[in-house]
């Protein structure tokens, strides 16, 4: 790897770490301009970051939808653990939290919020970890969300 490529990777890693600081609930409270409500949890977030990464959030905040006026978004179709992993991806591009037990729920979330790269990461993870026991479920998920 060349020095320029190493510097670029380090720069991207630093950017990801800096954006993670915004996602950290302790510091995000001061700068957040929207709250995501899931189960009994409220997660402060940033409309600009959510909108830059997801066309669905972008449309939500650009229009006069209730979420834009109330500065809160109710997310009632996923578990809090899946929402946190999705937000980690939105803020940092990191998909380290993928497991076979959450990849299918995350695939649903990525599809719903049009997070194409996260959807691809979930699909690739599930393909790499396909086994006889889960192949039927993976085929059904593929038919619903990602033909690849």
From TrEMBL:
The gene is spop-b. PANTHER family: SPECKLE-TYPE POZ PROTEIN. InterPro entries: BTB/POZ_dom, SKP1/BTB/POZ_sf. SUPFAM superfamilies: POZ domain (SSF54695). This is Speckle-type POZ protein B. SMART domains: BTB. Residues 32-96 form the BTB domain. It holds the Pfam family BTB.
């Amino acid at each position: 790897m060349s020095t320029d490529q190493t510097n670029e990777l380090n720069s991207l890693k630093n950017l990801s770490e800096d954006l993670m600081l915004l996602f950290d609930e302790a510091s995000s409270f001061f700068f957040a301009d929207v709250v995501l409500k899931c189960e009994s949890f409220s997660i402060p977030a940033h409309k600009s970051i959510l909108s830059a990464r997801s066309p669905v959030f972008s449309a939500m905040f650009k229009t006069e939808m209730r979420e834009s006026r109330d500065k809160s978004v109710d997310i009632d179709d996923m578990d809090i653990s899946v929402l946190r992993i999705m937000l980690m991806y939105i803020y940092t591009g990191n998909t380290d939290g993928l497991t076979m037990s959450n990849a299918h729920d995350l695939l649903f979330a990525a599809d719903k919020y049009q997070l194409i790269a996260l959807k691809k990461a979930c699909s690739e993870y599930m393909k790499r970890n396909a086994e006889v026991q889960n192949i039927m479920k993976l085929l059904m998920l593929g038919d619903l969300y990602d033909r690849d």
